[in-house]
Amino acid sequence: QGYEGLVEGGDNIKQANWLSVSNIIQLGGTVIGSARCKAFTTRAGRLRAARNLVEHGITNLCVIGGDGSLTGADIFRAEWSGLLDELVQEGQISKEVAQENCRLNIVGLVGSIDNDFCGTDMTIGTDSALHRIMEVIDAITTTAQSHQRTFVLEVMGRHCG
């Protein structure tokens, strides 16, 4: 469940491999989970997330999300060495482990149905959202015609919907 999984750790952190992700491309929606995480907005939450990543030997992180997720990733990146130093000072990890994990590589992918990111034609999630919108429009068109009514369809998308 996104950053919540990083903060909570345990079974929430799973290895992605060819077998576990090979068929998700055909699935619309957030098949890998999605959640807002209040804890990750605090340094204490990010410290727990850092400890969990180090415990699992994870030095590469792929963040898919909108403004909040990508801003969180940038803050996490900027604080990474300080978080490791703090974990060493608290005795949660050794200096050697901190040195082995001194670098956190983060890739950020814009995943938003808002489709409001400059430099790309379509963000991840937009195509699925547009397909669902078209399905709903197709479904209510005949109802609107047969009942001689007008329907207003509101869609998500912040200022773009």
Overview of this protein structure:
The protein is mainly alpha-helical and 161 residues long. The chain has 2 domains: 109 residues, Rossmann fold (3-Layer(aba) Sandwich), CATH 3.40.50.450; 37 residues, no CATH class. Helix content is 46%, strand content 7%. The longest helix is centred in the middle third of the chain and has 23 residues. It is elongated, with a radius of gyration of 20 Å.
Quick overview of this protein structure:
46% of the residues lie in helices and 7% in strands. The chain has 161 residues and is mainly α. Pathway: Carbohydrate degradation; glycolysis; D-glyceraldehyde 3-phosphate and glycerone phosphate from D-glucose: step 3/4.
Task: Name its key features.
single chain; mainly alpha; 161 residues; Rossmann fold; 2 strands; two-stranded parallel ribbon; fructose-6-phosphate binding; PKF_sf; 2 domains; kinase
Distance from N terminus to C terminus (CA atoms, Å) equals: 26 Å
Average residue-wise pLDDT: 90
The poorly predicted ranges are none
Sheet having the most strands: 2 strands, parallel
Assess the beta-strand content as a share of residues.
5-15%
- Broad structural category: mainly alpha
The strand count comes to 2
- Return the CATH topology of the largest domain: Rossmann fold
CATH architecture of the largest domain: 3-Layer(aba) Sandwich
Provide the helix percentage. Answer: 40-55%
- Quaternary state, please? single chain
Number of domains: 2
In spatial order, strands of the major sheet run 1-2
Give me the number of helical elements: 6
InterPro entries: ATP_PFK (IPR022953), Phosphofructokinase_dom (IPR000023), PKF_sf (IPR035966)
Cofactor: Mg(2+)
Organism: Corythaeola cristata (Great blue turaco)
Domain Phosphofructokinase: 1-161
